[in-house]
Design a protein that fits this description.
- The protein has 6 helices and 5 strands, in the order ββαααααββαβ.
- It has about 200 residues and is an alpha+beta fold.
- A 5-stranded mixed beta sheet has the order 2-1-5-3-4, covered by helices on one side.
- A hairpin with a 2-residue loop joins strand 3 and strand 4.
- Helix 1 packs parallel to helix 3.
- It is elongated, with a radius of gyration of 21 Å.
- The two termini are about 30 Å apart.
């Protein structure tokens, strides 16, 4: 099951992390929790990617293209004296996701950001630019605050009514078979330990 469909199903999940509201997802009571976890982590991490790109777009608008690593930390005069050139060098728009969030919506937001960047920078951004790296899914998050927010599918736990939703069960094992149900589900990152 690659995509949970919002147009056919009725159970509405209000996803939270801690006390922070994240997004709404609609699904069927008969969905396997494993498939729900896959979908929720994909949407959650996709929204994080959109947020990171939007944040970087704001920096791009304020400060221009990120300098090449060889030029970072140098003054304009030093760059000129060393003869270093940054051949990559306004504005872009931010995209916000809507109510029942799907991977299609996340992908559409990424495509809109990609398109906006292409309009402003038709020759493309340099390979080291954070926006380009995010759009190409080559971002390096290790050691950053952003890395703490990402939840892999393997680390993801979903909780409802103080119970972990186990992956080998169906959602209706917890909430019953009523498709017109609205519940608050918490997403949590479990730390995996190798023995």
């Amino acid at each position: 099951m690659s995509e949970l469909r919002c147009d056919v199903i009725m159970v509405q999940l209000h996803l939270k992390r801690g006390d922070q509201s994240l997004f709404l997802v609609e699904t069927s009571a008969g969905v396997l929790v494993r498939d729900l976890v896959r979908h929720v982590t994909a949407v959650y991490n996709g929204r994080l990617r959109v947020d990171r790109i939007c944040s970087e777009v704001e920096e791009l608008w304020k400060h221009g293209v990120t300098l090449a690593p060889s030029m970072q930390g140098l003054t304009e005069q030093q760059v000129e004296e060393l003869g270093l050139l940054d051949e990559w060098v306004e504005r872009c728009k931010q995209v916000q996701a809507g109510v029942c969030v799907t991977m299609e919506m996340v992908q559409e937001a990424l495509d809109q950001l990609r398109g906006a960047v292409a309009i402003v920078y038709p020759m493309g951004l340099p390979p080291h630019d954070p926006i380009r790296m995010e759009l190409e899914e080559k971002e390096e998050l290790s050691g950053t605050q952003a890395s703490l927010q990402v939840v892999s599918e393997a680390e993801c736990q979903l909780w409802w009514a103080a119970k972990e939703l186990l992956r080998d069960k169906k959602l209706h094992d917890y909430i019953g078979r009523n498709e017109k149900t609205k519940i608050v589900v918490k997403i949590q990152k479990v730390h995996l330990h190798s023995h």
